[in-house]
Amino acid sequence: MEPDALSDLADPSFSAVVLAGGTAVRLDGADKASVELHGRTLLTHALDACLDAREVVVVGDPVPTHRPVTFTREDPRHGGPVAALLTGRDALLRPTRLLGVLAVDMPHVGPGTFARLRRAVGGGVGGGVAGPDSLDAPVERDGAVLVAPDGRHALALVLRTDRLDDVRPTHEEQHGMALRRLLARLDLAEVPALGREHRDVDTWADLRDLADD
């Protein structure tokens, strides 16, 4: 489906990119976006997590979706998360101040997760954050990332688009680049995961574990 105006509840300053084009080697090459958990595909779970986004780009092969999205692919394909993220960013049809980034295999990330990440960026973002004229207004960060209980950074984050543009590598450099190398150039707030938000689906065993929860 082509992108169109979403709900009036969507945040006009927030768009999102869903990374769905990996090779899924540990899932025997299965299309992660189409893998089902509790009767719904992982892509459906991911798109529901982006409920508040005005616009969503999915970096992966096109499949039917329940909301308007733009599909795109990095060139060459399977260039890794940095190439996918930047390809998705470049496919946005409208300017956006904040960009959510989510791996398609994190079904317990929800709209509340992204709301917390946006608040952690600061600068008067989201409900309950002090206004920019308040002495208590938070200092704006370059972004915010979800952190698992073991300290691992999950592939669920919100970035200021201007700061992402400032540090983006060249087209040749981004392919095969580790995401942590790109993020190391940014000042990120760490947001602790709640419950199972940090859980991802890398193997069939992971899928079984989440299905049994």
Keywords:
single chain; alpha/beta; 213 residues; disordered N terminus
**Number of helical segments?**
7
Shape: globular
The ordered string of helix (H) and strand (E) elements is EEEHEEHEHEEHHHEH
Give me the secondary-structure category.
alpha/beta
Low-confidence stretches: 1-8, 126-137
The end-to-end distance, rounded to whole angstroms, is 33 Å
Helix content: 25-40%
Describe the model:
This protein is of the alpha/beta class. Helix content is 25%, strand content 19%. It contains 7 helices and 9 strands, in the order βββαββαβαββαααβα. It has helices at residues 42-49, 81-90, 111-121, 161-167, 171-174, 179-183, 204-212; strands at 14-19, 36-37, 40-41, 56-59, 70-72, 98-103, 143-147, 153-160, 188-192. The strands form 2 sheets. A 7-stranded mixed beta sheet has the order 5-4-1-6-8-7-9, sandwiched between helices. A two-stranded antiparallel sheet has the order 2-3. The longest helix is centred in the middle third of the chain and has 11 residues, at 111-121. It starts with 13 loop residues before the first strand and ends with a helix.
